[in-house]
Amino acid sequence: MWTRKASFTFAGGISLILIGMMISNHQMMILGLSFVAFIVVNSWISGHGDVEVQRTLSADNLYKGDDLYVELLVTNRSSRRTQTLEVYDNVPHEMKLRSGLNQMQMNLGPGESARIRYVLRCPLRGHFSIGPVSLRYRNTFNLSVEEMFVDHHSDMIVFPQLRDVEEAFIRSRTPKMYTGATTLRTPGPGTEFYSLREYVPGDPFKNINWKAFARTGDLMINEKCRDAVTDLYVILDSRDISRIGTVLKNPLEVGTVAAASLANFFLQRRDSVSLIIYDEKLSYLPPDTGDKQHFKILSSLAGVAPKGAMPLQAVTNSLAARFSRGSPIFIISSCEGDGTVPAAIRDLVGRGHEVTVLSPSSIDFERLVSRIPRMSYEVLKLERQNRMTSLAGFGSQVIDWMPDMDLSQALLQVRGY
Amino acid sequence: MAVEGNSKLKRIGLQFAFWGVLVILFGTLMVNFINFGQPNQLSAYDDDWDDLSAFRQDINDMGIKTKSLVSSPLLLEELEDPRNVTFVIAGVERDTLSLPQFSGESIITFANEDGYSPSEVDAIVEFVIKGGTVMVFEDYGYANTIAEKFGVKFKRAQLYDTVYVHELDYNYIWTCMQLSPCGMNGTVIDPGTIESHSRWNSSDPLTGRHICAVWADLMALNGTTVSADEAGLCAQHHQNGVIEYNASYQMLLNNITAIDITESSKHSAMITQAIRAVSSSEATIDMNGDGEIWIGSGLNADTPDLWGQFNLSVEVCASVTCSPFESGGRVHFIADGSALINAIYDYEGYNEGKYGPITKQIPANDNRKWALDVIAEALMELDPATGMPSGQPAPTAMVIFDESRHVQSNIATDTYNMLYFVLVYFTGEGLAKLLLFIGLFVLFEGVLLKKKDPDPWRHVFSIIYYGFGDANRYSYYAKSNKIKQVFLSKVRNQNGLTREEFDSMPARELQAMIADPVLVKFVFENRNFTLEQTVAIVKRIKLWGRV
Amino acid sequence: MDAGYGLESSVIAGERVLGGEIMAGDVSPQEEGNRTLHLRSLRKQWQIITLQIIATVALVWMYMEIVSTYVVGSIDHTILFRMLEEKVGSELPVGDWLTGLDQEGVASYYVPIGVGLSIGGGMSLLAFQPPKRQQKIKLGFVIGLIVILAGRFVMNYLWQLWGEGWTVPDDNALATLEWPLLMILSMVILMLYLLPVIMGTRGIWGLSRKGVAWCIGFVLLFLAIHAILSFPVVKAQLGGYGDKLATLDVLVGAPTVGFFGMNLVTEQQFSLIMIACLIMIFQESAFGVIRQLEYAFRLPESCKRDPEYVKQVDNVLNGHLRHTVIFLTITTLSTMVALGFHSVLLDFVEGVTGSQWASQVSESIELTLTYGLVISALLFLALMAILRFFVPWQRLWGLVESSFSRS
After folding, report:
1. Residue C406 has what pLDDT?
2. What residue numbers bound the domain in which C123 lies?
3. What sign for the dihedral angle of Cα B204, B208, B211, B216?
């Protein structure tokens, strides 16, 4: 494609030729001809974007606020020069370029390579994709430009940050109810030794006690004690109303941090954690343990976006039956704009669950972005206070989480009767 | 996606329609100037019976360069030595692109006639003023734009005369280049009616005596003889070692018209208009072209045709005597576009079948002699020292054939000539130059406005986030009723009552529960509170219930 | 803590190929090399200097061509200076050796061009000084001029006032103004003539786009004004002044300049071609330098030190240098061939027989006039443009280059 300069040069050349003919001036005609000749000669050269692109990331899952190191290796596999090529690695606009540059102007000979290195910082959680790689061939004299791209993407997930909440649970005023995995004196899946028994076909080979075999000559199996774990349910409110606040400080953002931190804490203790997210629909991740479950939870939390207006009672009505008896439930919600919250909590408490409501104060988040008149603010706060009190009255533990409060600090404020 | 697809189709459709209409309009315009399916004729570069190749060959044989003009007579302004150039226009078969022109008398003039644009006509006039010679052979074509500038006009209707070739048909008319018409004696020309050319036979070179005669006189004076090779431009008069100039011309014309003399648009530099050939007094002109002759005392719907004596050749000069020894050129108008076609010009070759099979023989005529004599007068070299003719062509002598108004043999050649014409026209004609300037300006503006270079790449860190709540509710929360409602909810929660219990509670009990006279008043009195009062109440509500 | 896997994926010409897993920490940070792309070191790089020298040579050469074609003997500064000396009745304060009055023809421009280059170079050097120093120098220059202009006059007048009291300045005092005024006028006239050289040098060595643009603008403006003034209708109006204006021949003469034994263009046409092509060489070299330095300047600090970036800037500069030399040479040669093409076309067309159109065109008068010259030149350029589709010369050159790099 011709650039503006080429268009002007060509149009100018033709004009000079015509005007030169009009006024019989050889200089103008020759000037015009040389402009046209210049364009023609330059049309012989063309670059190409036939390059191989290889992108390496330092990690494809990372936490919010972490740095990501990216290296892009561009190799010219063809037998001709690329000519002046601008290579631009498309980076999501939500990411900040910390050092280096995601573009380079290069002129690669046949077989030659170039590396582009840069560091990104990801201030937002979410699913992101780096790429495609845009290429722009530009003529040496800026007479033509050709754009191409290599459709190569690198996906990555930015998880919400994890906060350390262990201290909060240790220092909690309420009796310890979350004991993590405890051992029951019955044989079953677990880690602690229970007894030796004879091998029966179907037993996994890894459980064979070889010392006993060497001693007795019979195949013996190490039987383990069954671990008893707690199923923890985390219900996260991702309705549209939870977006109120700044980009980094709003009920949903702090809620995801809380959910991730809680899940991490309990999974480390080998408890089963389930994650339920309700926005315009209901997403249910059944309880499970281990790193895989941890990854699933973090991935889900990374992709959460505020939308919809599903009431909490609809969630509890559809899922309460699946909850293990007596299992603790964490509800992370601002409790705004949902009149069904008290009924839902009453229902859950009635079923014997330990319900903790971790409620980011949406009024205070709203105050970060809007100028709320003082009196209205006080009344809104009063109303919220009433709401919290009524929830506490149904038997749940309610935490009124202010924007400037740390998570562990908030968890220490568990309110009882 | 469906919406996007529809809009894309619509866009393609619109573009297609736009370009299609433009091509059709352009094609319609071009059809006016590029003739399809019409026979190509009267070209000096083709050798059919109806072309002029024999004439051109004779000129080349005399040692004179021939050139063709395929674009526009505007190029005549570029010639360095018009005095030694002859411009031949044989049949103006085609219209021209002609823009309005700025003129001295009015602001803008529009071309009335077709054929040549006003600036082209002006170029030809300038050429003649500078000493050039023009030969215009025309009958029913578009030559009147030139003719009128020289004070003549072609009738463009067929003339029939009693002096015609009986062996052929009434379309073939005999005419003699003399002031009185020649007559018939039975089926042949009466020799008694043949006279001499009115100018070329004069005795004085300064009054227009033909240059070959002058040269012959000079050689006779010197007692010099010339061989056939040395005869040069007067070879057609060479006999027995001398130039024996004969000023009588019996010309054969075919499908002719008549020429009128008119003063209306004549250029002031054209001093002399001389009639050189006339029809008999019994000639008729079929003015309405219906193939019938209806004549009467006046011209009306019943008798639309003309009869009488009409001019068949007129010479217009930019000098008094038309003599080549005077400055200023001349134009020869002949009322027949095909006077010099191979069939008539080279009648011997034609009769031998040189130009294809023949049905009838063309009789001997003096068309060739006359044409070569015109060339000789126009292009003979004059000795710079003595001013006398040398018999040979001038070193810069040139004959230019106007091929720009001839139908070409195929569309490609027509297009080529058309493109050249457009180029010459738009760089030569006044208003066209202005249009070209404007066009170039618009082109530059278009490039400036539409052509954008791609933006340089730059990573921009931007997070656009809208997390505003509903600001409309703030005023609602400042209302007394709402504050009251919130306070009552607080009272109910504090005391662990259900809604039903609370609603059924007597007022006195509620008052006792509240236990704050200000707040009791606030709850039970239905009146407006000032801002300060409301603020105070809210503060009290905040503190209420705290131990 | 992170999930731990750095995944490498590669794409070959659009086809997706997934590589194996590589542990995190594979990506090394940007390195630092010995050479950097900071302006102070990049400006001294040989490619940049070469381009700047090419631009300067082209500028001077173009100026000389224009001067020899249009100015010398017609409207040159020596005529103006002599007229001034005649009017004033004394020699100008600026030496003849400086103004070129002691030389004839083009030689009278040698020293002034040197002066122009020096002034342009001085202005470029000034542009790179810190703002405060620039201000001081400019101020010093202006004050110096004022002192030169009015210094002696003030001293004289003060002495007069001291001796005679309050009186108007006498002739002696006023006479002291003559020399400085004449000197300044001479310098202004000289600077006016040398404006393209000064602005061009300022643009090249001072890395100023504006300077280059002004230089080209002045040159084109001069050519345009000259074209208008030499138009016969306008020239006739100028009377005696019009006669002194140098004009170009209208019709084409016999070619005498060419290469490989082919005579393609006349001397005058060659001069005009050189002017046109040198304008382009000057422009492209100067703008190319500025563009590349600007790109390097805008890089972040870490990239300026990164050997990858340094290497690629080297590649780009080498490519630019190659293209400037090769392409502009080819452009010059192509223009020459294009102008000489009409005779080739004439010979070719004359040899074509058999068709009416061919013989008509072969004898057409358009071909002998300027129209034919231009049309055949454009035809040649069109053929050149089409040739790229038939000659895969880039691939061939690439094969040659890759064989060199392999060996």
Report:
1. 63
2. 75-245
3. negative
C25 in a structural domain: no
Chain C residue with minimum CA distance to B46: C356
Confidence of residue A180 (pLDDT cuts 50, 70, 90): low
Residue B23 CA from chain centroid, whole number: 18
Contact between chains at C366 and B70 (C-beta distance less than 8 A): yes
Asked if residue C241 and residue C254 are part of one domain, the reply reads no
CB contact under 8 A, C313 and A79: no
Q: How many separate domains does chain C show? A: 2
The conformation of residue B39, written as its DSSP 8-state character, comes to P
| C353 and C225 share one domain | no
Asked if C200 contacts C212 with a C-beta cutoff of 8 angstroms, the reply is yes
User: Environment class of residue A376 by beta-carbon count within 10 Å: exposed (0-12), middle (13-18) or buried (19+)?
Assistant: buried
Residue B452: pLDDT over 80 = yes
Q: Which two tokens stand for residue A302?
A: 């990374």
pLDDT digits (tens, 9 = 90+) for B159-195: 999 988 888 888 999 999 999 998 888 888 888 989 9
Residue C343 parent element (H or E): helix C307-351
CA distance C403 to A8: 39
Cβ–Cβ gap A93/B463 under 8 Å: yes
Q: Is the dihedral of CA B512, B518, B523, B524 positive or negative?
A: positive
pLDDT band for position C7 (50/70/90)? very low
- Chains A, B: CB pairs < 8 Å: 125
Q: Which segment, B231-245, C228-242, C279-293, C330-344, is predicted with the most confidence on average?
A: C279-293
CB contact under 8 A, B67 and C364: yes
Mean pLDDT of chain B: 86
Q: What is the pTM of this model?
A: 0.79
**What is the band of B102 on the pLDDT scale with cuts at 50, 70, 90?**
low
Interface check B443 vs A, CB under 8 A? yes
- My answer on whether C84 and C174 are in the same domain is yes
With contact defined as 3+ CB pairs under 8 Å, the chains touching A are B, C
Q: DSSP string spanning A204-262?
A: -GGGB-HHHHHHHSS-EEEEEEEEE--EEEEEEE--GGGG-S-SSSSHHHHHHHHHHHH
**Same domain as C299, residue C241:** no
Element (H, E) at C81: helix C77-88
pLDDT digits (tens, 9 = 90+) for A42-60: 998 887 878 999 999 999 8
Taking the CA of residue C126 and the nearest CA in chain A, the distance in Å comes to: 29
Interface contact A105, partner B, CB < 8 A: no
Same domain for C173 and C277, yes or no, is no
Cα diameter, chain C: 102
d(CA C375, CA C367): 8
Instruction: Give me the interface pTM, i.e. the ipTM.
Output: 0.85
Looking at the structure, tell me whether residues C239 and C356 fall in a common domain.
no
Report the half-sphere exposure of B238 (CA within 13 A, side-chain side): 15
User: What is d(CA B375, CA B133) in angstroms, rounded to the nearest whole number?
Assistant: 9
Name the pLDDT band for A24 (thresholds 50, 70, 90): confident
- And the tokens for C20? 């194996």
The stretches of B94-237 forming alpha helices (DSSP H) are: 118-129, 144-149, 211-222
In what helix (H) or strand (E) does residue C241 lie, and over which residues does it extend? helix C240-244
Q: Is C2 on the interface with A (CB under 8 A)?
A: yes
CB atoms within 10 A of CB B422: 15
Helices (H) and strands (E) in chain C, counts: 17, 4
Average pLDDT score over residue span B10-35: 80
User: A76 vs chain C: nearest CA distance in angstroms?
Assistant: 10
Q: Let me know if B390 is exposed, middle or buried by CB neighbors in 10 A (0-12, 13-18, 19+).
A: middle
List the structure tokens of B140.
């029913």
**Cα separation of B416 and B70, whole Å?**
9
At residue A2, φ and ψ (nearest 5 deg) are: -75, 145
DSSP C276-310: HHHHHHHHHHHHHHHHHHHHHHHS-HHHHH-HHHH
